[in-house]
Amino acid sequence: MDLTKGDLYFEKWARYEVIANKMLAPLNELRLERGVLIHVYGRSIAKVSSLDVLKAHRYGLLVTGEELTVEDTLPVLEQIAKMDLGPCRIDLGKITHKFLHSGTSSVKEFLDKELASACTGKHPVLKSPQDLVLYGFGRIGRLVARVLLDKIGNGDKIRPKGIVVRNQGADDLEKRAALLRLDSVHGTFKGTLEVDHEERALIANGNMMRLIDSIPPEEMDYTRYGIDNAIVVDNTGRWRDSEGLSRHLEGKGVKKVLLTAPGKGDIPNIVFGINNDQLSPGEKIVSAASCTTNAIAPILKVMDERYGIVSGHIESCHSYTNDQNLIDNYHSKPRRGRAASLNMVITSTGAASAVAKVLPELKGKLTGNAIRVPTPNVSLAILKLSLAKKVSKEDINSYIRSISLNSPLQTQIDYTNSADIVSSDIVGSRHAGVFDGQATIVNEADPHNVVLYVWYDNEYGYTCQLMRLLQQMADIDLPEFPKA
Hints:
Mean pLDDT: 94
Radius of gyration: 24 Å
CATH superfamily of the largest domain: Dihydrodipicolinate Reductase, domain 2
Low-confidence stretches: none
Helix content: 25-40%
């Protein structure tokens, strides 16, 4: 019986799904046993399902214009698994594409040459795991814990060991566990979670995180809890200058502090991928800037490099936060006291001035404002820019798309051309921002003037940027292959 077109589609899918399932075992072995992280054109395929593997391969079509299948990548992955590799990152999509166009028939010979500079032998990423303390356990604090625990692997990198909170009473431990386990926006915790009352700790994916009662930072003695040489991630925003944050460094067992909010004064504001190369290894206090700054700085950087930004205005349509009121009530800032879930609230943002700290060449060129909107997560930055060069919508979109697909900013800038995308579709995005190509506007009367739209998960996407910066602060720098 002749196969119909539908039969052929399904036969192909079934064959690919079997192969994708076959890839899961070597992927997990490489990650857990050797610290080798595998991506497909920048998309991680660690701890994923066979369907996620297939989706990542489909993405390769956008990058190269050629279909990349699991039939292509499986032999390469299997050979990588046979090699005596140490911790590194390997882009399976890029290295397979390079092999297919190399004219070489032997996968082994190709990889021996391509990965010749990779370290060999099983060894930890760090000599000893980096201790981490979460100072505060709110929206960002819990997401940092989730991302860290998802990446815990064999435990040789960063380990969250302490959570500083205000003790809320007898059921405090259970309530903290419930907040980590269940999330109205980001879903349930991926893994196992239990409480240890004797140690007053959360046991998440085998990792013990002690709850520590909040006292003045300078009076903290983390060594009492087996924590030393730690990085403290301050999620409270209570202190944002050197004077306040340096109090953490006076506590026993602390070596560095990472602020999850814009820093004031002489504190370096770092957007990973933009100015993290300027961060001194000896810097004790670092700010990860704001979610909005992280979302727009990469786009502003590449736009300025290619077209030149003369001036501009940034308007952030930002999801409401815990700083606002559920119903009308007193607030020290104008309009912020009005019901967050019922109103659009015009308010201020420091994003424009913060961008100037990250990109000094844009100092004085940008203004900014914000509108808080009745959604719990995902925000939208609208960038109205006056450029030095004339542009077209097609040129801008093509340029940003190429940056998102294959550049050093691949993990910061994502690109969508969907005509139906809305904010909910961005929940869980690991990128700093997602450029909306469909929404790009170029003024026909004056093609120097453009309006660009950048979505961002102001919680999860920002947390992923925090993690990249945190890894740098912990001196985690995995070699990447293939080399550019």
